[in-house]
Amino acid sequence: MRRQPTEAESKLWLLLRDRRFVNHKFRRQVPIGPYIADFACYASKLIVEADGSQHIESQRDIVRDAELARRGFRLLRLRNDHIFTRPDDILEAIWTALHTSETQ
């Protein structure tokens, strides 16, 4: 696996763990191809990433996102500051992503 989780990743894990989203089990630090996803729900093919300011659509992120999409995953990026200051909005965004098909 990779490094220790960031504070934001630890906080986000508290929101995701223990099947808090009925029938949607999230795993953390999930290997998918050559990448490690912060969190993934295989049933819904959803990856949730806690992103700091360094993740402003870098070329590396664009390539990574395209590869994950090619593998059938959808990606939800959540800002670190929102994870700490707007947890209800974070939960709502995850719930919406889980219940929205990629074609909508």
Task: Offer a quick outline of the entry.
The chain has 4 helices and 4 strands; from the N terminus they run αβββαβαα. The protein is an alpha+beta fold and 104 residues long.
Q: What is the overall number of helices? A: 4
Distance between the termini: 34 Å
DSSP, total strands: 4
Q: Over the alpha carbons, how many angstroms does the gyration radius reach?
A: 13 Å
Protein traits:
104 residues; alpha+beta; Endonuclease, Chain A; 4-stranded mixed beta sheet; 4 helices; globular
Task: Walk me through the structure.
With 104 residues, the chain is an alpha+beta fold. It has one domain (7-98): VSR Endonuclease (Endonuclease, Chain A, 3-Layer(aba) Sandwich), CATH 3.40.960. Helices cover 38% and strands 24% of the residues. It is built from four helices and four strands; from the N terminus they run αβββαβαα. It has helices at residues 7-16, 59-70, 80-85, 87-98; strands at residues 27-32, 35-41, 46-51, 74-79. Strands 1-2-3-4 form a four-stranded mixed sheet, with helices on both faces. β2 (35-41) and β3 form a beta hairpin. The longest helix is centred in the middle third of the chain and has 12 residues, at 59-70. The radius of gyration is 13 Å and the shape is globular. The termini are far apart. The model has no long low-confidence stretch (mean pLDDT 88).
